[in-house]
Design a protein that fits this description.
Helix 21 links the parallel strand 12 and strand 13. Strands 6, 7, 8, 9, 10, 11, 12, 13, 14, 15 and 16 form an eleven-stranded mixed beta sheet that branches. A five-stranded mixed beta sheet has the order 2-3-1-4-5, sandwiched between helices. About 60% of the residues lie in helices and about 10% in strands.
Length: about 650
């Protein structure tokens, strides 16, 4: 029994020593040295000084092991070397030293016992202690571990419970004499093999600890030789388990490594994101450029791949940039990496026109307009630059005449920043009154929005364009509409005829948004007839049928409807004839300078005639001079809006 207790003590001590050395290096070695000295001085005093001898030998051995591992830490086989050093070298040096220097205390059988218990202790307890140290220093990982456990399906829990129970039953009920040991391990072999491939490494180690505890049965051994035989069998069995674990780990690393080397696609042979990321890790200063490929990705697959192959051949045969090109499918862009700023801009300045001519000769319909680029420095992850380029490509820059667009000097940064960090305090409601030419005493007005960011006033039109292209339009409209309805609900219902709010076709085509709008009106106890919804110009109307159904429903509920910006965007005669609107607003571009432009005059007169036939009212916006007001009144326009009538003011 004394040998058994001593074996267990050596096992736990060796595991703790190796764990502290592995985790904390030389300071860990010093700590375990002081711990052993205190143990052998005050707790387990050995008169012959064997404990001090063991402390000295193990301290020197672990110190040298740490030195070796520090030197080879970054090599490919560092983990395997660490395994061999801690499992074989460290225990063998300690036990051999005791056998040679203290033969009266430790015979060869006793030294073998020390070696086996040290090796097994390091094998099964050191990983557990290291894991405990890790979770102590990273407490958040404990929650993640339990969350992962709780997310396992019930069938997996049952399967693993049966497997663990089977292993424990074999260990507990099998006869512990030496002759049945081989039978025990034959039964355990398939069960443990299943455990290796179905449990985490830590769980497998805990199973080995339980098995190790079963070895030390009180009636299991007659002498030290029998104990050593049993320990040897268990040690070999544990090594087999670790070899299987190493195989599983190596296989996982190999799969991950192969995935990182999958740099090329089948269409263009351009490098993909993994290679781009790897090639920028060590670069100091470089430029990342992009060509927008989104038009290509709208084509059918075969046509898209054919254009990509032509683009690839163009860069390979007509430029020196082929090896620096990377196609990113998730952002639909061709990324070009360059080291030199002057060389990059010089090479890429004419790329769009050259590529367009190359594709035109091959009868491929893709017209790259611009090159977007930004400057990067070491330490900035490439995905940050790609995201920035992607944002600016989506925004378009259609008005820019330059083929090279510097995304670091963009006028849209404030707009992007405001939308990404949107706060209701970044906008305010403005009110601009109309002039009812037939009844000037009636109060009607439009509610507008003004945005600001970091002390700068932003262009409202550009804000909504950016919001639409970057996917912020829905959330932005929700905040603005709710604030405007809240303002209207605070006015006395007899103090105004109606107030206009602007909504996009996207908003009005969204059933959930319309339901939310009606809920807000009901909750605010707002008279629906006091709300005039202006359908603003916002690109193309994707689904006119759904929009028409939604407008008809809102009209039935009591809202007034208006078609905004007639003469621009989607606001055409066709929309005027099909939408159930009460009024139409002439776009400011038609009103401005209408006195000197006969074409504008003809359009306004035609619109007035059609509106009279449809029995709808006409509002002229951007009226700025008395002459324009007089002319529009002569034509029979119902309402005037503009700086001449009333300037937008915060509510």
């Amino acid at each position: 029994m004394e040998s058994i207790v001593r074996a267990q003590l050596f096992s736990i001590t060796a595991g703790a020593m190796v764990a502290s050395a592995y985790m904390y290096g030389k300071s860990g070695v010093l700590g375990q040295c002081l711990g052993l000295l205190a143990f052998y001085t005050f707790i387990n005093q050995i008169p012959s000084g064997v404990g001090y001898l063991y402390t000295l030998v193990m301290t020197i051995t672990l110190y040298l092991a740490v030195e070796v591992l520090t030197y080879i830490r970054k090599t490919k086989y560092s983990l395997r070397v660490a395994f061999c050093v801690f499992i074989f070298v460290v225990p063998s040096v300690g036990s051999l030293s005791l056998a040679i220097m203290a033969p009266n205390q430790y015979c060869l059988d006793a030294a073998l016992n020390v070696y086996l218990t040290d090796a097994i202790g390091i094998l099964i307890t050191a990983p557990v202690i290291v894991t405990i140290f890790y979770y102590i220093s990273n407490p958040s990982r404990i929650k993640v571990m339990f969350r992962n456990l709780l997310s396992l399906p019930k069938s997996e829990w049952i399967y693993k419970a049966i497997l663990v129970t089977s292993i424990l039953l074999v260990l507990y009920f099998t006869d512990t004499n030496f002759h049945s040991a081989s039978v025990t391990y034959m039964i355990l072999a398939p069960l443990v093999t299943l455990a290796v491939f179905n449990f985490s490494e830590l769980t497998q180690i805990l199973l080995m600890i339980i098995g190790y505890g079963q070895i030390f049965h009180p009636n299991a051994y007659d002498n030290l030789h029998t104990l050593n035989t049993r320990l040897s069998l268990f040690f070999m069995f544990s090594l087999i388990i670790y070899i299987m674990l190493e195989y599983k780990r190596s296989l996982r690393n190999e799969i991950e490594g192969n995935l990182h080397r999958l740099y090329f696609d089948k269409q263009s042979n351009f490098g993909t994101f993994q290679k781009l990321d790897a090639n920028t890790l060590e670069k100091e200063n470089f430029i990342v450029s992009a060509i927008d490929l989104r038009p290509i990705f709208k084509y059918p697959l075969e046509k898209r791949d054919n254009i990509l192959r032509h683009i690839s051949r163009f860069f390979e045969n007509n430029t020196s940039l082929y090896n620096s090109c990377y196609i990113l499918y998730d952002v639909s862009a061709l990324i070009i990496l360059s080291d030199s700023e002057k060389l990059a801009i010089q090479q890429m300045h004419d790329l769009p026109s050259k590529l367009e001519k190359y594709l035109d000769l091959r009868q491929e319909s893709f017209y790259p307009e611009k090159i977007y680029y930004c400057h990067c420095r070491k330490g900035i992850r490439i995905n940050q630059a790609v995201n920035r380029l992607n944002v600016h490509m989506r925004l378009g820059y259609k008005s820019s005449l330059n083929t090279m667009v510097d995304c670091d000097k963009s006028d849209l940064d404030d707009y992007i920043g405001m939308l990404e960090e949107f706060n209701p305090s970044n906008f305010q409601i403005l009110r601009q009154n109309y002039l009812d030419l037939a009844n000037p005493e009636k109060v009607t007005f439009e509610l507008l929005s003004r945005f600001h960011f970091e002390g700068k006033v932003l262009n409202t039109g550009i804000v909504f364009q950016c919001a639409q292209k970057l996917g912020y339009l829905e959330s932005l409209e929700h905040v603005i509409v709710h604030a405007q309805l809240k303002y209207l609900s605070g006015l006395h219902k007899n103090s105004f005829e109606y107030g206009s709010i602007n909504l996009t076709p996207e908003y009005l085509s969204d059933g959930r948004a319309v339901c939310q709008l009606l809920d807000w009106v009901d909750n605010l106890e707002l008279d629906i007839s006091k709300v005039n919804i202006e359908i603003v110009e916002s690109g193309n109307i994707d689904n006119p049928e759904i929009l028409l159904q939604s407008l008809t429903y809102l009209k039935q509920r009591g809202f007034k409807l208006a078609l905004d910006d007639f003469g621009a965007g989607h606001a055409t005669y066709n929309q005027l004839l099909t939408m159930p609107v009460d009024s139409v607003k002439i776009d400011g571009s038609l009103v401005r300078n209408c006195l000197t432009d006969p074409i504008k005059q003809a359009i306004i007169q035609d619109l007035r005639s059609i509106a009279t036939t449809l029995k709808i009212q006409v509002v002229a916006e951007c009226v700025e001079t008395e002459e324009e007001a007089t002319y529009l009144k002569m034509l029979g326009i119902d309402y005037l809006q503009g700086y001449l009538v009333h300037k937008p003011t915060p509510v």
